[in-house]
Specification:
This protein is mainly beta and 384 residues long. The chain has a single domain, classed as TolB, C-terminal domain (Neuraminidase), CATH 2.120.10.30. The chain has 2 helices and 26 strands. β14 and β15 form a beta hairpin. The N and C termini lie close together (11 Å). InterPro entries: 6-blade_b-propeller_TolB-like (IPR011042), Glc/Sorbosone_DH (IPR012938), Quinoprot_gluc/sorb_DH_b-prop (IPR011041). Keywords: Signal.
Length: 384
């Protein structure tokens, strides 16, 4: 598998250097609406299907016949709902614990986002079928569920939560600290139940109906569709899907403090979106964290939708180190963000040799990447 990774990485390197077409090759197929890929610290990849199934993809491209986990009977799937996130505990090799983010089937109109803990069985390729619910919160509309979960270097679980949908955040939820919607959440799952990290911005909240939620780590997000940590410095990169005009890429500096406000719905990108409800923010845009990069929508139908990726920290190509790779779902392109110094970044797009709706980047233990396509619902494309 490494030779395939290497040759395809070289193709991408050539493309980015000389504006040629990015060449991608299919590595595996047979998946239905895949939305997440991750690894458990070994050579296996775990592919999350939206309907509630997690499959194991082996290093030779084969897929295990028996799913790692099937919770489709308790998942409400469709549109932007479903099984959306998977994260293995930092001590997974000894604890066997992993965590999932899914939409339950408690209601067809206002179901719950659920964060639950599961464990692997005595068979390393099959999980125990029942888990423990740690956190749940209601979704008022069918879209903007977020869904990504991942562990930071601090050992805490981070959760991407969309604004609850409805278009234009009609409930002003992203700026409302009494709700978990439109936020990045951070919780400590090392115990039986979850607890609140002391460095969360509202960690001392009384947590009453009108009090800030202590789980909040950052706010002012519309629909963060994937985030990742830069393993070199702990920076948190957040790709936030825009409303009408802009897609944005945000960064939480690893050495910074919690509580950043990314501005939605008062701002879309760095431009004013709304002056109603909780807007304008006191102090204006100076009291928000503006995007590291943003790009405008093009056209009227599916004009822009970002899929977050990773900062490259591999060793094969030093010139790629520090670049942030992402994808554009609507434009079906691959984006690269390059640090040009003084906190400035340049943005470039490349069109691959195949047109797909890219929904997810994944990272292998070799720090190489693969790209997941949702249409035609079956393909894993090897990229780096």
């Amino acid at each position: 598998m490494k030779s395939l990774f290497t040759s395809l990485f070289a193709a991408l390197f050539s493309a980015l250097s000389f504006s040629q077409t990015v060449n991608l090759a299919t590595f595996a197929s047979g998946f239905t609406t895949p939305v997440e890929i991750t690894n458990a610290g070994d050579n296996r990849l775990f592919v999350v299907e939206q309907a509630g199934i997690i499959k194991i993809l082996n290093s030779d491209g084969s897929v295990n016949a028996t799913p790692f986990l099937d919770i489709s009977s308790i998942v409400g799937s469709g549109g932007e709902r479903g099984l959306l996130g998977l994260a293995f505990a930092p001590d997974y090799s000894t604890s066997g614990r992993f965590y999932i983010n899914y939409t339950d089937n408690s209601s067809t109109s206002t179901p719950n986002t659920v964060i639950a803990r599961y464990t692997v069985s005595s068979n390393p390729d099959v999980a125990n079928s029942t888990g423990t619910i740690l956190l749940s919160y209601q979704q008022p509309f069918s879209n903007h569920n977020g869904g990504k979960i991942a562990f930071g270097a601090d050992g805490f679980l981070y959760i991407a939560s969309g604004d609850g949908g409805g278009g234009g955040d009609p409930g002003d939820r992203a700026q409302d600290t009494t709700t978990l919607l439109g936020k990045i959440l951070r919780i400590d799952v090392s115990g039986i139940n979850y607890s609140i990290p002391s460095t969360n911005p509202f960690s001392n909240s009384a947590n009453g109906p009108s009090d800030p939620r202590p789980e909040i780590y950052a706010l002012g997000l519309r629909n963060p569709w994937k985030f990742s940590f830069d393993k070199a410095n702990g920076d948190l990169w957040i790709a936030d899907v825009g409303q009408n005009t802009f897609e944005e890429i945000n960064k939480v500096v690893g050495s910074g403090t919690a509580g950043d406000n990314y501005g939605w719905k008062c701002y879309e990108g760095s431009s004013v979106f709304s002056t109603n409800g909780n807007c304008p923010i006191p102090g204006g845009i100076s009291n928000t964290v503006t995007p590291v990069a943003e790009y405008a929508h093009v056209g009227s139908s599916c004009s822009g939708s970002i899929t977050g990726g990773y900062v490259y920290r591999g060793s094969l190509y030093p010139s790629f180190v520090g670049k942030y790779f992402f994808a554009e779902f609507c434009k079906q392109t691959i984006g690269v963000l390059t640090d040009t110094g003084n906190n400035n970044w340049s943005l470039a797009f490349q069109t691959p040799n195949t047109t797909q709706r890219w929904t997810r980047w994944g990272k292998t233990t070799m720090v190489n990447y693969i790209l997941l396509a949702v249409q035609p619902f079956i393909k894993l494309k090897m990229l780096i």
